[in-house]
Design a protein that fits this description.
Alpha-Beta Plaits; Rossmann fold; five-stranded mixed β-sheet
């Protein structure tokens, strides 16, 4: 068995597990596999105990327990992942990790039909209105402008059409609770666009602030005072630890934490099993990046209250 230490490690309730397999791709270390119709821990040395997989289990069959187990072995994980990676699976992750959504979604379409994506080939000389019109009307012909090539990497995580909206937001300053007509207007605290982690480039200048907010994308709909309580003076990254590609998110967060020296990173998630992996995802990315940022985790109840803060 080798050396044993007391540490956090996942526990699988086989009675609850239905073998759906959603947890398997969520584990970046490949520690989980479906064997005989149930999720199994391949080896203790492959499990880091952070629990990113918890948020992927719709049955709540995965939990974290503290017990005697073999230490996590990062080198063994790297060798294991290389051994199980299918041949031909190697790819350039930089393009997909920083590409905007329209390119990611259009890639399949272009491979099949050879048609350009809505924004492909449009240079930076186009007007703001033209870029947006092109981006949101994909059926329109996209003829390259003279003198422009096919390359379109920009700060917004992709192409000129997305870059037209990317960056810091400027708005007229209004007092809180100002009354306009019969409605009380609450000022937005959002300072930039985009906010979806999938769309944000790790080099985006708006991320350069002392503190960062990472939130599950359901939180702003659940907690009514989200802007004033959490968002003020912070760049925001949102995502879903259940439905999104968490391995891509982890890699992108590592890049962000390497680029910017945050004093504090606040993670806000919903207090349900499918959302619990967000804190572990951010914690692991901070560790990989060698960041000394303080990590704060706030859990919101589905009733709209703050359940815990640590």
């Amino acid at each position: 068995m080798g050396e044993q230490i007391k540490r956090d490690i996942i526990k699988i309730n086989e009675d609850l597990c239905d073998g759906c397999g959603l947890c398997v791709p969520a584990c970046a270390e490949g520690a989980l596999q479906i064997i005989d119709g149930k999720a199994r821990l391949v080896s203790e040395i492959y499990c880091d105990g952070l629990g990113v997989c918890l948020g992927e289990c719709p049955q709540g069959a995965i939990s974290i327990e503290e017990r005697e187990a073999q230490p996590f072995d990062e080198e063994a994980v790297e060798e294991y992942l290389k051994a199980i990676e299918p041949k031909g699976a190697e790819h350039d992750t930089n393009a997909s990790e920083t590409a905007c959504a329209c390119h990611l979604e259009a890639s399949e379409r272009t491979q099949k039909s050879q048609e350009p994506c809505a924004c492909h080939g449009h240079g930076e000389e186009q007007s703001h209105e033209s870029l947006l019109d092109t981006a949101f009307n994909p059926n329109k012909a996209a003829e390259p402008m003279p003198g422009t090539g096919d390359s379109h990497e920009h700060d917004g995580g992709g192409c000129p059409a997305c870059a037209a909206l990317s960056g810091e937001i400027t708005r007229e300053k209004k007092d809180e609770g100002v009354i306009e007509g019969e409605e009380t207007v609450i000022a937005s605290e959002l300072s930039h666009w985009p906010v979806k982690l999938k769309l944000v480039s790790p080099e985006s200048s708006f991320l350069k602030k002392p503190n960062l907010l990472v939130a599950a994308d359901c939180v702003p709909f659940t907690f009514a005072d989200f802007h004033r309580r959490f968002l003020r003076d912070k760049p925001l990254l949102i995502g879903c630890p259940k439905l999104d590609d968490t391995s891509l998110y982890r890699k992108k967060l590592v890049e962000i934490f390497k680029n910017y020296d945050y004093k504090k990173v606040t993670v806000v998630n919903i207090g349900i099993p499918c959302c619990a992996g967000l804190q572990g995802l951010v914690e692991k990315a901070l560790s990989e990046a060698g960041s000394n940022a303080q990590l704060e985790n706030i859990v919101i109840g589905i009733e709209g209250n703050i359940k815990s803060s640590s």
